[in-house]
Fold these 2 entries.
Entry 1:
Amino acid sequence: MQTPTYSALLRAACASFLLLAASACGSAPTQDDAPPALGNAGLLAQIQAEVGAAACDSTQQCQTIAIGAKACGGPERYLAWSSKSNDGKKLKALAQAQAEASRKQQQADGMMSTCSIITDPGATCQAGRCVLQKSGLGGSSAM
């Protein structure tokens, strides 16, 4: 009977580890791992659909809304939208749901952020479309 060499034992250990890791990746998700009904991507797509082209005739029609949530608090970013053909109620509800889904996902994943503060840049009407103002220009209030 021949004694196994160190490299053969090492290969066997690596193969066992890979098999264990692969079986763990293929396990069925538990109830706690299930994503929210729409999830962040679905909610973000709905928000973008609700914003649409953000058509405007004047800057007074342009608003901003906070999108997402950072692990330390505050939004991930802002999005410009127009009140010309949108009262913002559905948009605000979608943004709040998306921020909550983002916070839950971050807590589940144990995520951290830079804790930097993102200020509302405000929005302006350019070429018939609401856009975020360049930083440093100040801005209008969010919803």
Entry 2:
Amino acid sequence: MTEPASTGAVRHANKRGAARLAAVQALYQMDVSGSGVFEITAEYEAFRLGKEVDGALYREADAQWFRAILTGVVENQKTIDPVIRQALTEDWPLSRLDSTLRAILRAGVYELMKREDVPVAVIVSEYVDIAKAFYEEDEPKLVNAVLDRVSRRVRGEGRGKDAS
């Protein structure tokens, strides 16, 4: 999971976008390795954010944004996961999703729930783009649908409801 799939033209990420991608990667790493948030945060800040790793240059990221997402997801996971479960169909429980997809959804839902200063459209677009970096099939559509459902529920905004 360390590198996104190369799928044609990729938009260049801004510092917050790079922080979101790094947070998703860190959440994935924590999920599969069992590492703690402090260990992973220190590793990413020291060796990954804006650094070259195995010949690939990580974009400069907003380290404060990265930390906020990572710690926010960890601290709020007990409230985030049920919100994701409610937005999924019954035949797709959260446990059925792979670690990368869970990380994307958890980070996106965290921002929708706790970062009201960030517009819904920005959050949904950024996390759909992250999903597109890792998946070529239906996963980006799933991320879009879940985040849209959550945004309508927690913010009263989304495609299914007029935001005016």
